Structures are given as C-alpha cells and as structure tokens.
Amino acid sequence: MNIIDKFLAAAKQELIRWILRGIKLPGIIQVQRDPVRILSKADRDIVHYRDGGKCRYCGEKVQRYNAQFDHVYPWAKGGETTIANMVTSCQRCNLSKADSVGKMWPLPLSY
C-alpha cells in the first residue's frame, strides 16, 4: 500500500466516523506536514538512480546536476519526504505540477 492509498484509507475512515456520529464536518481541516521537506544528497542519488536518470512524468533524460525531486503526493498537502514518495523530475514538469494532486502521475519504472 503506497502513501496515497494509506492517506485515502485514513481519510475515508475518519469521514465514516464523523458521519456515524452525526457531527457536522469542520470547514477547515488542518493537514499534518512532515517537518522535513528536502531529501538528503544520498537519498536524491538513490531516487535519480532508481528512476534511470529520467523525468518520471515525461521520460526526458535529466542530468543529476539538473534534476529536481518532486513529491508525488505534495508536501504542502501532507505528503511525506521519503524515497517512496519522491521522483526525479525535469524543471518543466515539476513547475507545471506544482502542489496539485492527480494532475500528473509518474510513469512506471519500466518505461
């Protein structure tokens, strides 16, 4: 189960609890953020190697020194800074995705 599935499962369970209690949902729900936003150099090297030195969104070859590392499930929305939630990205794809969810999904590792 990946991080997005875990998040959705937890959110669904919480929603069910609220409905069963008959309590109105709050207008604002605060997201708990991972306090660490940036991967270590060693972890960035691992992600770049795992992704074959290519942008996981468009497949473009990305040199290590130009690579950007993107949270698949955005940090701003509660995504964790872990190797499993990070992908190699070119600048164009990283900037166009921003902190959206579902706008772009990474290509499979075997592309």
Labels describing this entry:
DNA Binding (I), subunit A, 111 residues, 3 helices, mainly alpha, two-stranded antiparallel ribbon, elongated
Describe the 3D structure:
- With about 110 residues, the chain is mainly α.
- The protein has one domain: DNA Binding (I), subunit A, CATH 1.10.30.
- The protein contains three helices and two strands.
- It has helices at about 5-20, 40-50, 90-95; strands at about 70, 85-90.
- A two-stranded antiparallel ribbon has the order 1-2.
- The longest helix has 19 residues, at about 5-20.
- The chain starts with a helix and ends in a 14-residue tail after the last helix.
Q: Roughly what percent helix?
A: 25-40%
Radius of gyration: 16 Å
Mean pLDDT: 80
**Unreliable residue runs:** none
Give the topology string: H per helix, E per strand. Answer: HHEEH
- The CATH architecture assignment turns out to be Orthogonal Bundle
Number of strands: 2
CATH topology: DNA Binding (I), subunit A
Largest beta-sheet details? 2 strands, antiparallel
> Major sheet: order of its strands?
1-2
Oligomer: single chain
Q: Which band does the percent of strand residues land in?
A: 5-15%
* Secondary-structure-derived class: mainly alpha
Shape: elongated
Distance between the termini: 21 Å
Task: List the total number of helices.
Answer: 3
Write down the domain tally. 1
CATH class equals Mainly Alpha
